[in-house]
Amino acid sequence: MKRNAKGFTLVELIIVISVIAILVGIALPRLRGMIDEGNTARAASELRALQAAVESYYIHNSKVYPPTGSTWETLLTTVKPTLIGSAPGDPFATTAGTHYQYGKDTNGKYYIIWSVGPDATADVTGISTAGAVSGTPDDDIYVSNGTSGTGGF
Predict the structure, then answer these.
(1) In this structure, are residues 88 and 97 in contact, taking their beta carbons and an 8 Å threshold?
(2) Which of 39, 69, 70, 76 could cross-link to 91 by cystine, CB 3.0-4.6 Å?
(3) Residue 152's beta-bridge partner residues?
(4) Homologous superfamily of domain range 11-144
(5) Is the pLDDT of residue 48 over 90?
(6) Interatomic CA distance for residues 138 and 93, integer angstroms
């Protein structure tokens, strides 16, 4: 007597599940890389906007860059013409709502604005009086009016 089986056998189901698991294992690292690339592009764009706002502040405030500290981004929202409506958050920061970091040299001539980058660790520490980036900007993303380097845009 011949039976027509309409279902899957246990072996067939295990094979299908194994193939799906392998495909997911291949896709997840690629997805993480694409998310990092998107966040890098977002950070670069927002840093350019912040740089334009800092330069506008400089022009409209007696050739002085914004002071460092927690209010530097808030000051940029009041510059006319309005270049940023609110302070953007760093997409790589581990704490939600953490903003980009800003520093000036001791003479107030050079500034740097940076994101912590994909490793979520700030390796940039500031900018020197010669306009060189201080620290190790390995994967940090930054803009500056000083000398550019690896992460500069």
Answers:
(1) no
(2) 39
(3) 142
(4) Glycoprotein, Type 4 Pilin (3.30.700.10)
(5) yes
(6) 16
Residue 17 CA to residue 4 CA, distance in Å, equals 24
Lookup: tokens for 139: 């994967």
The CA distance from 96 to 81, in Å, is: 28
pLDDT score recorded for residue 1: 52
Q: Which segments of 46-121 are extended strands (E)?
A: 101-104, 111-115
Condensed to tens digits (0 to 9), the pLDDT of residues 112-151 reads 999 999 998 989 999 999 999 999 888 899 999 987 655 6
Q: Structural domain boundaries of the chain? A: 11-144
pLDDT on residue 143: 94
Kindly report the number of other CB atoms within 10 A of residue 39's CB atom: 17
